[in-house]
Amino acid sequence: MILEFLMVALGLVILILAGDTLVKGAVNLALRLGIPALVVSLTVVAFGTSAPELLVSVQAILDGAPGLALGNVVGSNTANVLLVLGVPALIAVMHTSGHDTRRDYLYMLGATGIFILLCLTGRLVWWHGLVLLTTLAIVLSATFLASRGQDVEVEGAEPGLPGWKMTVYLVMGLIGLPIGANLLVEGATEIARAYGVSETVIGLTLVAIGTSLPELATTVMAAIRRHADVALGNVIGSNLFNLLGIMGVAVLVGPVPVDPAFLAKDLWVMLAATLLLVPFVFLGRNITRTWGVVLSVFYGLYLVWALA
Fold it and tell me: Contact 44/166 with Cβ under 8 angstroms?
């Protein structure tokens, strides 16, 4: 099994690097074409930073492992709350009162509810994808209207970036993403078969943690520098896009059956993790080290439960 774990690790590294270069190339191309910074931030950056998860989900469906795609999205959302917010809080208190995330949180909560309702049908199909993508379009439009006139700092923007370097970034990203996704999905599928667990469980655990590593690394470094205050908003935005954007596109590629065990446990764990954010979003509570311990322990217990 060493080869399969190496495939997963190599796939993750390629996905992370390719996703980063794709964002840089696409962002600078969009800005060069005169697209407003706010639009670039809401669309190009959002899609670009989620490109690794998107490619993994699409590749999983094409390879006949749709459970891995579903597990990846739901597992990533759970990991984003419990792990990506929990571990950095062990390093430094994360102050949340300076950032108003109430509107975006309500969007995410609504998206979570819609997603769970669709999953209760037992099978996600193409029209469910249209519902999710339409909801995403409505959310992006509302966010754009509410944010007009505000100064926006676009991630990955380099005003003086030469055209040739922009092209290299785009090509590397477009080539690297499918290669990384293919390695990750193949390796993860073989690991699932070898250990006798479902692709969904591997998606919920191994793949979900792997695709959440960039967010975790960024937040940990920000906590070390005492600048992790924006992490809550980043997690909310990432989770919203995972549910509406990634699964919306993925189920247009092919149907995704929802395992009964998944309906009985994992969706509700994701919802519970989402509701854990209420004190931080609405009451202005800081994410202290105590909360960091609580969130991290909850995630460890969930992993044990998921693999049992």
Answer: no
